[in-house]
Design a protein that fits this description.
Structural class: alpha/beta
Bound molecules: farnesyl diphosphate
CATH class: Alpha Beta
Oligomer: single chain
Distance between the termini: 17 Å
Strand order of the largest sheet: 3-4-2-1-5-6
Number of domains: 1
Shape: globular
Number of helices: 7
């Protein structure tokens, strides 16, 4: 268990969130669902929903920083998303390219460290180069941590970790009976991140969809019908309030 400091039940006063500083999640993970439906309901192409979704991401990142959250991990593109129509994939990649070019300077100025998790090998070369560059440029920043799950699937990540450990075993560096939970955590793409305290999924579905399966063993889930492009500061504050009301026991007896 990495942290227990969010267990303290807050007093929800009108000075919230400052009054409830103990119950601010350190790491928030988000499944940004509903871009397509947002666009469809307005008679717009799906890409318009993704663009609006990128704006929502900017707002939520600021909201995280203002609230004192240190880590934000977003599910930008899943392993399964490769099955979407080629035109939508290419629009999403274009948006990512644009995002990386446009936002890098601002992210760096704001001391944001950018990380990527997932199997980046199917991405086109120029995007991979931009990702490498963004990760390197921001590597020493520590004011905030934005992690983008891209071409990411948790089962595939666990499989990659299992292969890494198997290699250590076959080279004699590790014995099967000595494999620990820490070894597995350290072999995942998220090796240098704390586990998420709060996972938000917008868009009405109530499932994990292959996101951070190992890491979310003790994560609190918050599901909302609100579509991601509509998810703003007020919605985020609601999610934080809901989180603050919960008592995290990590499987232990009531305090
Ligand atoms: C799910 O909505 C959203 C995605 C698959 C993509 C999320 C991407 C962004 C918000 C763009 C910003 C991110 C970066 C890093 C550029 P959906 O299309 O599945 O919506 P639906 O369920 O309504 O169809």
């Amino acid at each position: 268990m990495k942290r227990q400091d969010s267990i303290v039940k807050p007093l929800l006063t009108d000075r919230w969130p400052l009054a409830a500083a103990n119950s601010i999640p350190r790491h928030v993970a988000v499944i940004m669902d509903g871009n397509g439906r947002w666009a469809k309901s307005r008679g717009l192409p799906r890409t318009a929903g993704h663009k609006k979704g990128a704006d929502a991401l900017r707002n939520i990142m600021n909201a995280c920083r203002n609230a004192g959250v240190s880590y934000l991990t977003i599910y930008a593109f899943s392993s399964e998303n490769w099955k979407r129509p080629e035109s939508e994939i290419s629009d999403l990649m274009q948006l990512l390219r644009h995002y990386l070019q446009q936002e890098l300077e601002t992210l760096h100025e704001n001391k944001v460290r950018l990380r990527f998790i997932g199997d980046l090998s199917p991405l086109v070369k120029d995007i991979r180069a931009s990702i490498d560059d963004a990760v390197e440029v921001t590597a020493k920043n520590s004011a905030f941590n934005l992690t983008v799950a891209l071409s990411y699937g948790a089962r595939q990540e666990i499989l990659r970790a299992a292969r890494r450990l198997a290699e250590k075993i076959s080279s004699g560096a590790l014995k099967p009976e000595n494999i620990s939970e820490e070894d597995i955590s350290r072999s995942l793409d998220t090796s240098d991140l704390p586990d998420p305290d709060l996972l938000i999924r917008t868009g009405g579905e109530q499932r994990l969809s292959n996101f951070l399966l190992w890491q979310s063993a003790y994560t609190e889930f918050y599901f909302t019908e609100t579509l991601w492009p509509d998810f703003g500061q007020a919605h985020f504050t609601e999610a934080l309030k809901d989180y603050a009301r919960r008592e995290r026991r990590y499987g232990t007896a009531e305090a």
